[in-house]
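Model it.
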Amino acid sequence: MPLRLPDRLPAIDILKKENIFVIDESRGTTQDIRPLKIVILNLMPLKITTETDLIRLLSNTPLQLEVSFMKLKSHTPKNTPIEHMMMFYRDFEVMSKEKFDGMIVTGAPVETMDFEDVSYWDEITTIFEWAKTHVTSTLYICWAAQAGLYYHYGIPKYPLDKKMFGIFPQYTSGKRIPIFRGFDDVFQMPHSRHTEIRKEDILANPKLQLIAESPESGVSMVMARKGREFFITGHLEYAPDTLDKEYKRDMGVRDDVDLPKHYYLNDDPTQSPLVTWRAHANLLYNNWINYYVYQETPYDINQIE
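Modeled.
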């Protein structure tokens, strides 16, 4: 089944060139199907890139999804045209009376700041609280994962001496759960962050389940409320060239960024990145939509609580 996206969203043309089946909102409303409603709170600077990355992964499910975009009233993005934001995004206060089957909250370039010092902290924590009763399952990514764990469960973050940067092998913890159905014993995950959460803090909280970790990159996935919340510290949604662009952007500008690990062929930045995470990325998003959204959400979306 196709993804239903807002009319004229730039990702539509990009993904059609990749033979991904998407339809705009006008056509989607003519189909007699109750689509799953997915909302994305996009905090990344390059909004259009992040939209495309996430929609690419969501397109892998056979279910029809209706994707919408939320923005913060208390923050004005600097790297995305205001016309794009006005056309495709709505403020949280406008969407707050709606309910959604699934929600994705992205990372943000504020991770070295204390949470309470982030200018939009009050608004985003209001959204975190709202999601508990208005969304069936929420994915928190990178900084949002740290922020969500801190707000909901008091888990602190810690600064790193060097940026955690590259593609790192991950191992699932304990028994297999549906989010990892079809996974191999080890899977790869891109990471790009200057802070971390620690295993001992997660294990000390009985409300949290550590479900994936790495000897190199540490905690990578945490589950809470039986899958109503997932916290992912890495970036499975990243396109093949994202870390390459970040490395070349920061090279010579920052002194805490090394060559991304396990990324370039032969560790040579003049060669193409070696893509090792995309299959599991597609599988994880497909499993999330199937097992934690579609099979858990009520047919009457207003019954979500």
